[in-house]
Amino acid sequence: MDGVNLVDGVDLATTSQGRWFEDFMLGERFELPSRTMTATLFRLYIEASGEGHPLHADDVYARAIGLPGAVAHGFLVLIQTTAGASRFHDLVQDSLIGLSEQSSRFARPVFIGDVLRPILQVVELSPNDSTGQVHLRSTVHNQRGELVLEGTQRYLLRRRA
Q1: Distance of CA 28 to the CA centre of its chain
Q2: How much is the pTM?
Q3: Backbone φ and ψ of 124, nearest 5°
Q4: Residues near 21 by beta carbon (within 8 Å), at least 6 away in sequence
Q5: How far is CA 115 from the centre of its chain?
Q6: DSSP letters along 88-152, please?
Q7: Which candidate among 3, 29, 127, 136 keeps its CA 20 to 30 Å from the CA of 119?
Q8: Is 7 helix (H, G, I), strand (E, B) or coil?
Q9: Using CA atoms, how far apart are residues 37 and 45, in angstroms rounded to an integer?
Q10: Does the domain at residues 5-37+73-158 carry the CATH identifier 3.10.129.10?
Q11: What 3-state class would DSSP assign to 5?
Q12: pLDDT digits (tens, 9 = 90+) for 84-141
């Protein structure tokens, strides 16, 4: 059910296109594709970010300090919640002004081989005159169902004229 946006078992994305602020409902969920964390993803993140701490790149170092291997950088885990990888992106192409805020808490370490399952859920809708903020709760669980990240994202959308 990756990418499906469900409220009470109904896939809202298939029933409406080009959604605006007022089209969203509390409780809507956007499931992003699951992803297995690989050594290649770790390496690519390190190359893109410039992160050089051995905790994220060196299994020997990580094992020497009592971990089972290198730990994913928190931002590598965070990018798994990018709303553009879900149906949310397709639905707001005409109404999206932008991402206005993001926060995260990293609850557990992520290692090579972990399978991450990110979900975004509408938890608050804040209307303004011509725009509104859709507040999404972001969570990522690993293959054991353990929460590894939780946070919020706020998107500013246009309202219908």
Answers
A1: 14
A2: 0.86
A3: -160, 145
A4: 95, 125, 127, 131, 132, 134, 157, 158, 159
A5: 14
A6: HHHHTTTTEEEEEEEEEEE-S--BTT-EEEEEEEEEEEEE-SSEEEEEEEEEEE-TTS-EEEEEE
A7: 127
A8: strand
A9: 11
A10: yes
A11: strand
A12: 999 998 999 999 999 999 999 999 999 999 999 999 999 999 999 999 999 999 999 9
75-98 burial, b at 16+ Cβ within 10 Å, e below that, comes to: ebbbebbbbebbbbeebbeebbee
Collapsing DSSP to helix, strand or coil, 14 comes out as helix
Residue position matching structure tokens 């991450």: 116
Residue 160 in 3-state DSSP? coil
Q: Where are the domains of the chain?
A: 5-37+73-158
What single string gives the DSSP state of each residue in 49-86? H----GGGT-HHHHHHTT-SS-B--HHHHHGGG-GGGS
Q: What's the pLDDT score for residue 17?
A: 67
Tokens 């969920």, located at residue: 29
Residue where the block lists tokens 């730990």: 71
Q: How many residues does the chain have?
A: 161
Distance CA 71, CA 141 (A): 16
For the four alpha carbons of 146, 148, 152 and 158, in that order, the dihedral sign comes to negative
CB-CB neighbours of 45 under 10 Å? 19
Provide the token pair at 117: 């399952």
